[in-house]
Write a structure and sequence with these properties.
Number of helices: 7
Oligomer: single chain
Largest sheet: none
Radius of gyration: 16 Å
Length: about 110
């Protein structure tokens, strides 16, 4: 993999995160995809994407939870598991911290607007 440019590595990492968000536990796992150290990837990712790798993973997790809340009738605990939260309470707390509302509030508000 050493013949990949940094742009290609970043693209590979972001694509992997988006496709596997429910299975990713740590940002360190993302570095394994492109066979570089987490520290090296983290520095380069921050420079290229203008955000830390961990924040990108959290944002991807929130974006996927939003999509599932809108497009499915899955209970909140199922949405939490599908996007990779280790527990319902972690998912609910993380979602509220990022969006300012609970998952149920988000779903209800979106459906009322339709």
């Amino acid at each position: 993999m050493s013949d990949l440019t940094w742009d290609e590595r970043i693209e590979r990492v972001t694509s992997h995160i988006q496709q596997n968000i429910g299975k990713i536990d740590t940002a360190e796992e993302a570095a394994e995809v492109v066979d570089v150290s987490y520290e090296t990837l983290g520095k380069r990712f921050r420079r290229e994407m203008e955000m830390p790798l961990g924040k990108y993973i959290r944002q991807t997790r929130i974006d996927e939870a939003r999509r599932l809340l809108i497009e499915t009738d899955d209970p909140v605990y199922v949405v939490c598991r599908k996007v990779g939260y280790s527990s319902d309470s972690n998912g609910i707390r993380g979602f509220k911290r990022e969006t300012g509302m609970t998952m149920e509030e988000y779903r209800r508000r979106y459906r009322e607007e339709r």
